[in-house]
Design a protein that fits this description.
The chain is an alpha/beta fold. The protein folds into two domains: about 1-140 and about 150-230, Spore Coat Polysaccharide Biosynthesis Protein SpsA, Chain A (Alpha-Beta Complex), CATH 3.90.550; about 240-395, 60s Ribosomal Protein L30, Chain: A, CATH 3.30.1330. The protein is built from twelve helices and 18 strands. Helix 2 (about 55-70) links the parallel strand 4 (about 45-50) and strand 5 (about 75-80). It is elongated. The two termini are about 40 Å apart. It binds magnesium ion. Magnesium ion (MG) binds next to strand 12 and helix 8.
Length: about 400
């Protein structure tokens, strides 16, 4: 039987995030959920023990563990003050009969099932070794440096490897190493160093460089992008769609304003503002994509401030809100539904007026018109209807 201890006991202080770096969200899920997923998916692993921050056991269960609902997770235990104490707590929960125990950092979510299986297989192939550590040769030149930052020496890079996790051990060797470290009050920087200290032989298993540990805030976007790229997602994934629809009635003695352009006609549209039905549909589409309600919520027609106001001015305010919230307009298409007047001669002016209000390129704005073959209220020329759809890039979910 093979059991993995996932150590998620850190407070995430270096990350500046309350609740620990393991609960920071990347690619739609907590860091720890991605990590656990790799071990759940790896069929060489039979059982998983999760060690979490002692004051946050319930939070971790809720956020990451129950999310996965895997029967492989046999225990969620509170960790200790140090990493050694946390792994020690995890060891106590490892099911009897586990001949091989893996230890892995909860904050290394880029680990893959294949990497876990490869490390296990390497230990199984090498009977004289007590442990196998996943890592890679140092790609950077390393320096030993004095407290005043003077370089003291440059060790030969060929002999230096970066040690990551998973680290895979024969269960008796790991347990003995922990017993001995505890008895001697000896603290290593990783689990393998405890096994080495106890006289066990440990070898490196070459793994990929991207099996990184989330340690500082700038690690999160890197991990997020790698996870999304592995899923085949574009880096620009937060795409929102919005639709809008509006109707205004015709009346004598009103100007006809459509898409910000005043069009000569025998009648115009009735409304609290200038009744620009096309721009209203567009505003509703944008607000819909932003999940910000609708035009009536933002600019109530009971408010005298909006009496007779230019709808293009309202659109400018919506564009400002869009930028403020981190949204960007990628594309907009609109259709006017009316019998008369003909829209084609004014189409380019409308596109330019709307694009300018949005701060967008005119190629991102489409305007067209259709009739309803004289059917319905638009066919009877009682009013004008308009529809709009937009595509926005959001700030990331
Ligand atoms: Mg309206």
């Amino acid at each position: 039987m093979i059991t993995a201890i996932i150590v998620a006991g850190g407070t995430g202080e270096r990350l500046g995030r309350e609740g620990g770096k393991q609960l920071a969200r990347v690619a739609g899920r907590p860091v720890l959920a991605h990590t656990l997923d790799a071990f759940i998916t790896c069929d060489r692993v039979d059982a998983i023990v999760v060690v979490v921050h002692p004051e946050r056991v319930d939070e971790y269960r809720r956020e990451a563990v129950t999310l996965l609902g895997s029967a492989k997770i046999v225990a969620v235990v509170p960790g200790g003050d140090t990493r050694t104490a946390s792994v020690g707590a995890g060891l106590e929960a490892v099911p009897a009969g586990s001949g091989i125990i893996l230890v892995h950092d909860g904050a290394r979510p880029l680990v893959t099932p294949d990497l876990v299986a490869a490390a296990i297989a390497e230990l199984e192939r090498e009977p004289e070794y007590a442990g196998v550590v996943v890592g890679h040769p140092s790609y950077d030149t390393l320096k030993t440096v004095a407290p005043d930052r003077e370089v003291l020496s440059t060790p030969d890079r060929a002999a230096i490897w970066a040690a990551q996790t998973p680290q895979v051990f024969r269960a008796d060797a790991l347990r003995e190493a922990y017993r001995r470290a505890e008895a001697e009050g000896w603290a290593g920087t990783d689990d393998a160093s405890l096994v080495e200290h106890a006289g066990g032989r440990v070898r490196m298993c070459a793994g990929p460089r991207d099996n990184m540990k989330v340690t500082v805030p700038e690690d999160l976007p890197i991990v997020d992008r790698v996870l999304r790229a592995r899923r085949g997602e574009s880096f620009v994934d937060d795409i929102r769609v919005g639709m809008g629809y509006d109707v205004h009635a015709f009346a004598e003695g009103r100007p006809l304003v459509l898409g910000g352009v005043t069009i000569p006609h025998s009648k115009g549209l009735v409304g609290h503002s200038d009744a620009d039905v096309l721009v209203h549909a567009l505003i509703d589409a944008i607000l819909g994509a932003m999940r910000e309600g609708d035009i009536g919520k933002l600019f109530p027609d009971s408010d005298p401030a909006y009496a007779g106001i230019s709808s293009i001015e309202l659109l400018q305010r919506v564009a400002a809100l869009m930028r403020e919230r981190g949204f960007e307009l990628l594309d907009a298409d609109m259709v006017l539904i009316l019998e008369h007047p003909k829209i084609a001669p004014h189409r380019e002016a409308m596109r330019e007026c709307v694009a300018s209000a949005l701060g967008a390129d005119v190629t991102s704005v489409g305007v067209k018109a259709t009739t309803t073959e004289r059917l319905g209220f638009t066919g009877r020329e009682e009013g004008v209807a308009a529809q709009a759809v937009v595509l926005l890039r959001g700030p990331g979910r």
